[in-house]
Write a structure and sequence with these properties.
The protein is an all-alpha fold. The chain is built from four helices and no strands.
Amino acid sequence: MALGANGARLMAAGIAVSNRRVPESGHAHAPRVYYAMARDGLFFKRVGSLNERSRAPVVAIALQGVWASVIVLVLRRLRSGAQLCRVAGRRVFGLTGAALLVSASATRLR
């Protein structure tokens, strides 16, 4: 409101551009999370390996591809990719919130 109609259009454009990349970012960072978990001993050891030539976590990237395929096959009854992202996002955000609560309560118990 402070910037008027042009400010509202600019803000809407910024939100649209930033939201365009959200689904893609999960595919980029998830394999690195799997890799880090495996290196810390919290996931399958093989996932924590790097390809010698590319130094990329190839097994973790393949795992992410398999997981994405499973999600698409299981949830294919959904009408659109956006709907799929909303369903998956709600679960991930819910699990993240639960993990934060568990972590906070565990910290207080120490």
